[in-house]
Design a protein that fits this description.
Gly_zipper_2TM_dom, alpha+beta, 171 residues, Bact_OM_lipoprot/Surf_antigen, signal, membrane, 3 helices
Length: 171
């Protein structure tokens, strides 16, 4: 071999030297068993329903404004009729008749009874709602005749890619 060929071979060997001392490399292990890691999560939720209940209606208040105005108007009209003591009696009778008429007119459209009616009542409560969720996988694999177990975020299938690291032993 001539000198030039020896130099080229030596240069290639020196260039490959760092590659031959690589401390990490990849291999595959055979998957023996995969167990999903399942956790229970509580997600409370609202359940609501509508019930119809009987409600007592309050009795409405009658307005006194019509009686007062009617009484004043009736007294003024009654005061115009008659003379002496008859005028006083006519004023009193006009005031009474005007008050009754004013009350009927003012309160004619109001419901007076205090009966019952149905009212919708919405009732809600919080109930537990449990869900199962897979949080990872316990993977047992064989590498060079020994079994190893790791927790992984995915199911690797039939084989798992491994990163092998080689380090010198410490004394």
């Amino acid at each position: 071999m001539n000198l030039q060929a020896k130099l080229i071979v030596s240069a290639l060997c020196l260039g490959a030297l760092p590659l031959s001392q690589a401390a990490d490399f990849e291999e595959f292990g055979r998957v023996v068993r995969v167990s999903p890691q399942v956790e229970q999560i509580n997600r409370p939720r609202q359940e609501c329903r509508t019930e119809y209940v009987q409600v007592q209606q309050p009795q409405q208040q009658r307005s006194a404004g019509g009686s007062i105005i009617g009484g004043i108007a009736g007294a003024l009209i009654g005061n115009q009729v008659g003379g002496g003591t008859g005028r006083t009696v006519a004023t009193a009778a006009g005031a009474i008749a005007g008050a009754v008429a004013g009350d009927r007119i003012d309160n004619s459209n109001q419901y007076q009874g205090g009966g019952t009616t149905e009212q919708a009542v919405k009732q809600c409560r919080t109930v537990d709602h449990w869900e199962s969720r897979t949080s990872g996988y316990e993977v047992t694999y064989d590498y060079r005749g020994r079994n190893y177990t790791s927790i992984m975020s995915y199911d690797p299938g039939e084989r798992v890619k491994l990163r092998v690291s080689v380090e010198p032993a410490q004394r």
